[in-house]
Amino acid sequence: MSFWKQKTLAEMSTEEWEMLCDGCGKCCLNKLIDDETDELYYTNAACLLLDCQTGQCKHYSDRFKHVPQCTEITVDNIAELDWLPDSCAYRRLHLGRELPSWHPLIAGSKVAMRNNGMSVCGKVVCETQVKDIEDHIVLWPLKDMD
Ligand code: SF4
Ligand code: SF4
Predict the structure, then answer these.
(1) How many whole angstroms from 145 Cα to the centroid of ligand 1?
(2) Average pLDDT in the chain
(3) Virtual torsion, Cα 79, 83, 88, 92, nearest 10 deg
């Protein structure tokens, strides 16, 4: 049986934890919160370290040196990170859901993830090119599917 079915998040090794990430890149998008309603909005403005074509962080291993405000997702803070997309593997497992059929660990590659519109690849711009962040609000990062 697969490690994500056999183990809890807390039981996973560092390597297994990292493998859980589908590489969608949605967590690297700037988000806005409405002051009055607390509603969360995703934008298509990506962190300056994100490769907008591949959806990968360009300096993942030393990202905090470049972007100190980057959030490390851990078993200790996953419950608080309610801004993660519903499709996120960590959020799904934390909430007792299964990994989706398009997840690279199940599908064997990122092709299904991209074909199903679950990746930021080619759909985002670097935050350094953004003038008015409110013009960049998008709904597609909220998409979730099994
Ligand atoms: S949203 Fe979750 S699964 Fe997607 S890249 Fe971020 S941490 Fe990985
Ligand atoms: S530093 Fe890397 S992992 Fe962190 S938000 Fe930016 S692109 Fe994503």
Answers:
(1) 15
(2) 96
(3) 40
Ligand at shortest distance from the CA of 24:
1
Q: Are 98 and 144 in contact (CB under 8 A)?
A: no
Query: Rounded to the nearest whole angstrom, what is the distance from the C-alpha of residue 97 to the centroid of ligand 1?
Result: 15
Q: What residues does ligand 1 touch, defined as CB less than 6 Å away?
A: 21-27, 73, 84-85, 88-90
Write the pLDDT tens digit of every residue in 97-145.
999 999 999 999 999 999 999 999 999 999 999 999 999 999 999 999 9
Give the predicted TM-score (pTM) of the model: 0.94
Span from the CA of 73 to the centroid of ligand 1 (angstroms): 9
Q: Give domain limits for the chain.
A: 3-140
| Residues paired with residue 41 on neighbouring β-strands, in sequence order | 32
